[in-house]
Amino acid sequence: MKIIKVVGARPNFPKMAPLIEEAKKHPLVESLLVHTGQHYDEAMSQSFFDDFRLPKPDIHLGVGSDTHAVQTANVMIAFEKICLEHRPDLVIVVGDVNSTVACALVAAKMQIKVAHVEAGLRSYDRTMPEEINRLITDQLSDYLFTHSMEANDNLRREGLDANKIHFVGNIMIDTLLKHLATARQSNILQRLQLEEKKFSLLTLHRPSNVDNLDALRGILLAVRDLAERIKIVFPMHPRTSQKIDKFGLGDFIKHRNIVNTEPLGYFEFLCLMANAKLVLTDSGGIQEETTILGIPCLTLRNNTERPITVEMGTNQVIGNQPEKIIQSANQIFDLSKYEPKRPALWDGRTAERIYKILLKK
Ligand code: UD1
């Protein structure tokens, strides 16, 4: 069996790493790693290869940044050539970024089987580009590997064949559990002069929060307010720092208690999450990572494709209005007791289950 595994953007790397590791146990499976180049900064890509000790990609498509149509099309043009040359039996894609849908579309049209890891997530909000990527990728996939029963339900509601749907657990949590002990030894707390549970962590990168001046200003005003009470660490996605510069909002994040940093490496960021009093984010993956770590998370969006994180008790979806952010954060700071639950099969063995199913078929 010849498999091509595709990665492209930052959230793909922790999802593919366990599958690359698992493949080593199956020498009859020939595996190629393709990096589309959607993300290319050292901090957004190479640092993850170093942290996870991933092999260098066999093929790098080097597509880089552009509009959605151009980026997606460039991945498709380049990836079709790879599929023609290597004729894989299966293409594995993860998550919901533009590279995911582009490669799934190429493979499906060439009658190559597609496996989608993290299938079935739905925000039911088509203003999010990822929602469109998820819908199309799932429709085209032959193997739909899900991380929760809610995802199975979403796929069945869309008429997808139940035989294609496999509840295997959360692949990203394989990576988190594998590296948590190492991450806890990171010196990032000392480096940023932080104390355990005495700081909050903030990440922002969704276009709905950072591409709109009013939305971004509102969030940063709320953050300034909270910074009067607690230190806030803010590792900035390149899109976010560009927008802060463009909108002239740099002064909003100059505060003795706001610690601005470049995007951080996996271990450093995991160490910060594990020690934070609160995480504020618009990311999808961080909602799940905080669930496993048992850290309160406020999601600065109007919806989530990961409702299980809310059910488990760690996550609240609160939108991006400043008053609501301040009020919700203060409620968490005042909480004394906190008992989150853990979702089924978020146990570090998802890659193993996926390979078992692939090899059986
Ligand atoms: C992408 C994914 C999003 C994911 C996020 C994680 C899509 C539609 N979006 O969003 O789901 O949560 O990655 O980061 O696929 N840039 C750099 N260096 C890089 C990469 C990007 O400077 O290495 C800048 C460029 O100005 C670029 C912008 O960030 O135009 C946006 O990058 P892009 O890949 O289009 O989307 P993300 O916002 O990163």
UniProtKB/TrEMBL annotation:
Pfam families: Epimerase_2 (PF02350). Residues 22-358 form the UDP-N-acetylglucosamine 2-epimerase domain. Transmembrane segments: none annotated. GO terms for molecular function: isomerase activity. Keywords: Isomerase. It comes from the Bacteria. Signal peptide: none annotated. Belongs to the UDP-N-acetylglucosamine 2-epimerase family. This is UDP-N-acetylglucosamine 2-epimerase.
